[in-house]
């Protein structure tokens, strides 16, 4: 079955929804289809606690300060022009979502700006500790009022359509690869739809589920990056996986793990070792408010030295009313586990949080494939470099959604829908008969990545991960070729692809920088170009 549309958007987080809304309002005659593999409200955006970083108080803050903080966190690998674009255009984009109904916390004068690690000024706009949830709510309400946006829930994107599907031999060095849309599985009835579009945008979020402990929702399986890689798009800097220093330690286990926002440390909380002693001054002058890569490595090191399963975040000296007003969700979650943050230290561990690498784009959000754009966490724009500055991700998504929409409305009239694409050739689509083959392989992927490609890496660990992933890849591809298509099998396949990309990129970077730390090259700089992936 085929469906045609002017604009196809894969993903319903802040990137996809902002782009859909802006394009729909600018060109109401265009047909826009947005597909999401679960319900519209489930996305990485929803789980963002901290907020949005933007220069708001120009008396104390400045664009240059925000730029310098971003460059410092990115450890020399940021694209300075992209950083400038995002920082300078960001406040206007934030004002737009405020105008669309997004609420941020205020004091008696203006917005109550927060502080987070790596920032030199208070510039984080937030809504309690539910900022992402609030933004998602406002964007969904706004999208409902756009008659030319069709949101299709429970559609799992399978592959991007290129000349390959028209019978041409496409490789990574083929010039002028074109995207014509995507195949997607309707999870409710098993039909596979061929979506044909003038332009396609991948806004599918992150890939945190490659690790055992992650703050990402279970839908974060790297589908967009994996599809783009199979379509021979350029992928860059996948080795830079950000681990959030302070996920709530729960011995019972949770997926995803609960995030204790960096804003809690910005509010005055102090990191302590297993014996209750401060330790961050041994690692950085900024102590508990150092950038995330530094804090995560410090916690990892302290845990390994002591053999502890977790460390602590001390909030006991903070004002109870103020803490609850700012962090009601965190407070209630801790209390539900018998932890009173005003009396007890909060047990914390690092957890996979954000992928700084992804589909390579230019300053307009264009990928290396014609008619294919990408936006949000699935991309590598050059903003984050080797380590993302806290609360820059939502800002990046809004700025690039705006830039993509401008490029689309200016150029879409010159693009024709290519219709001679085959429908998906399937023998049948239903649940796998032996789900254990998928669930056990998924556990193996998470274990491999957690033990060998985590916060601290080495050549031996990476080689072992690469070998193990190779076996899993072969097994899964055989299963994929012989079994009916299912969402679970497709996600496993994508997670293995993402794990391979992270591991290969990490092995190629012979230095320690930002989020990539290897014991074999702790200080050496011997970098091989990642864009060959």
Summarize the structure in words:
The chain has helices at 14-26, 63-73, 80-99, 131-144, 223-230, 262-266, 292-306, 320-326, 328-336, 393-411, 436-452, 459-482, 487-508, and strands spanning 2-10, 32-36, 52-53, 124-125, 149-153, 155-161, 181-186, 192-202, 235-236, 241-248, 270-272, 311-314, 346-355, 358-360, 372-374, 379-380, 456-457, 509-511, 517-518, 525-527. With 533 residues, it is an alpha/beta fold. β1 (2-10), α1 (14-26) and β2 form a beta-alpha-beta unit. Mean pLDDT is 93; it is low at 525-533.
Morphology: globular
Largest sheet: 7 strands, mixed
Strand residues, percent: 15-25%
Q: What's the alpha carbon Rg, rounded to whole Å? A: 22 Å
What is the fourth-level CATH superfamily of the largest domain? FAD/NAD(P)-binding domain
- Tally of DSSP helical segments: 13
Share of helix among residues?
25-40%
Number of strand segments:
20
Oligomer: single chain
pLDDT averaged over residues: 93
Low-confidence stretches: 525-533
CATH level-3 fold name of the largest domain: FAD/NAD(P)-binding domain
CATH class of the largest domain: Alpha Beta
Counting helices, strands and paired strands, the structural category is alpha/beta
How far is the N terminus from the C terminus?
33 Å
How many domain regions? 2
CATH architectural group of the largest domain: 3-Layer(bba) Sandwich
């Amino acid at each position: 079955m085929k469906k045609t549309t002017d604009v196809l958007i894969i993903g319903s987080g802040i990137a996809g929804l902002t782009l859909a809304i802006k394009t729909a309002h600018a060109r109401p005659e265009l047909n826009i289809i947005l597909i999401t593999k679960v319900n519209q409200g489930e996305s990485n955006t929803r789980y963002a606690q901290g907020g949005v970083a933007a220069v708001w108080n120009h008396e104390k803050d400045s664009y240059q300060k925000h730029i310098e903080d971003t460059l410092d966190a990115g450890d020399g690998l940021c694209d300075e022009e992209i950083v400038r674009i995002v920082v300078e255009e960001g406040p206007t984009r934030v004002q737009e979502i405020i105008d669309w109904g997004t609420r941020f916390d205020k004091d008696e004068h203006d917005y109550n700006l927060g502080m987070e690690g790596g920032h030199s000024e208070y510039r984080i706009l937030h809504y309690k500790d539910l900022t992402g949830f609030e933004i998602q709510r406002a964007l969904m309400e706004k999208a409902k009022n756009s008659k030319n946006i069709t949101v299709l829930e429970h559609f799992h994107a399978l592959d991007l359509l290129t000349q390959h599907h028209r019978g041409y031999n496409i490789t990574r060095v083929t010039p002028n690869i074109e995207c014509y849309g995507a195949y997607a599985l309707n999870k409710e009835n098993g039909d596979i739809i061929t979506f044909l579009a003038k332009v396609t945008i991948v806004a599918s979020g992150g890939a945190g589920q490659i690790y055992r402990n992650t703050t990402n929702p279970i839908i974060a399986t790297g589908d967009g990056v994996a599809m783009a890689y199979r379509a021979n798009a350029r992928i860059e800097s996948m080795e830079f996986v950000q681990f959030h220093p302070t996920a709530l330690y729960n011995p019972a286990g949770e997926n995803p793990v609960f995030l204790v926002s960096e804003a809690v440390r910005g509010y005055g909380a102090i990191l302590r070792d297993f014996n209750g002693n401060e330790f961050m001054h041994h690692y950085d002058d900024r102590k508990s408010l150092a950038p995330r890569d530094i804090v995560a490595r410090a916690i990892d090191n302290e845990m390994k030295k002591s053999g502890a399963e977790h460390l602590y975040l001390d909030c006991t000296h903070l004002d109870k009313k103020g803490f609850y007003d700012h962090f009601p969700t965190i407070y209630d979650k801790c209390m539900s586990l018998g932890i009173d943050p005003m009396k007890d230290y909060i047990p914390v561990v690092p957890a996979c949080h954000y992928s700084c690498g992804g589909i390579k784009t230019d300053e307009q959000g264009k990928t290396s494939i014609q008619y294919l754009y990408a936006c949000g966490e699935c991309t590598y724009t050059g903003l984050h470099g080797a380590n993302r500055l806290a609360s820059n991700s939502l800002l990046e998504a809004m700025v690039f959604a705006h830039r993509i929409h401008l490029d689309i409305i200016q150029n879409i009239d010159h693009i024709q829908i290519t219709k001679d694409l085959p429908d998906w050739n399937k023998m049948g689509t239903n649940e796998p008969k032996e789900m254990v083959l998928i669930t056990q392989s998924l556990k193996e992927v998470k274990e491999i990545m957690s033990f060998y490609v985590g916060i601290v890496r080495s050549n031996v660990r990476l080689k072992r991960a690469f070998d193990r992933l190779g076996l899993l890849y072969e097994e899964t591809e055989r299963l994929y070729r012989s079994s009916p298509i299912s969402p679970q099998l497709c996600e496993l396949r994508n997670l293995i692809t993402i794990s391979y990309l992270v591991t290969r990129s990490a092995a190629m970077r012979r230095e320690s920088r930002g989020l990539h730390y290897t014991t074999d090259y702790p200080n050496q700089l011997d970098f091989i170009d990642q864009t060959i992936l």
